[in-house]
Amino acid sequence: MLSTESSIFSGQNVPLSHQIVALFVLAVPIASIAWTVTHEEVFREPREWCANHSKSCQRLLQRKFFYLFTCEYCFSHYVAIFFLIITRYKLLYEDWRGYLISGFALVWVANMYMSLFGRLRLDIKHEHVEIAAKQKELEPEPEIQPR
Fold first, then answer.
1. Is 36 left (phi over 0), alpha (psi -120 to 50) or beta?
2. Fewer CB within 10 Å, N or C, the chain?
3. Would you say the C-alpha torsion 71, 76, 82, 85 has a positive or negative sign?
4. Residue among 90, 80, 81 at smallest CA distance from 12
5. Number of neighbouring beta carbons within 10 Å of residue 19
6. Residues 6 or more apart whose Cβ sits within 8 Å of residue 50
7. What gap in Å lies between CA 74 and CA 134, rounded to an integer?
8. Tens digits of per-residue pLDDT, 82-112?
């Protein structure tokens, strides 16, 4: 059953090139949200609280629920589902299969973005450590004044 909505995400006969562009564009906010919630300082306290509950809750379902806020891969699935609901983006097919394929494709691309971003941050941190070490080497020794 073809959709009657006039949208790049769910309209009839959307060119594959537009679907692919939308895939790479929609993955950006998914990656951004998932990374921010699972890594950045602004969500540190709630994330630590969830991490503690993911280890200490009695029930498996509760532990898994709280774990989802500490893992960028897990959390990106839920963010992708949210974006699929609000955008109605479908990939390749106009029915439920389009949602299924687009959901996993969005998660995959978003996680590639997060991997690249994590690697970039690691490289930048490494450069800062090297610069600080070189600056320390170049600093002159303080002269000891005789009394």
1. alpha
2. C
3. negative
4. 90
5. 19
6. 66, 67, 69, 70
7. 40
8. 999 999 999 999 999 999 999 999 999 999 9
Q: Which of 37, 10, 33, 34 is nearest to 93 (CA)?
A: 10
Do 94 and 3 touch, CB atoms closer than 8 A?
A: yes
User: Would you place residue 137 in the very low, low, confident or very high pLDDT band (cuts 50, 70, 90)?
Assistant: confident
Residue 17: its H or E element? helix 16-39
Residue boundaries of the structural domains of the chain: 16-138
Q: What is the DSSP string of 99-133?
A: HHHHHHHHHHHHHHHHHHHHHHHHHHHHHHHHHHH
pLDDT average, residue stretch 3-30? 78
> By the 8 A CB rule, do 76 and 22 touch?
no
**Phi/psi of residue 103, nearest 5 degrees:** -60, -50
Cα distance between the two ends of the chain = 93
pLDDT band at 1 (very low <50, low <70, confident <90, very high): very low
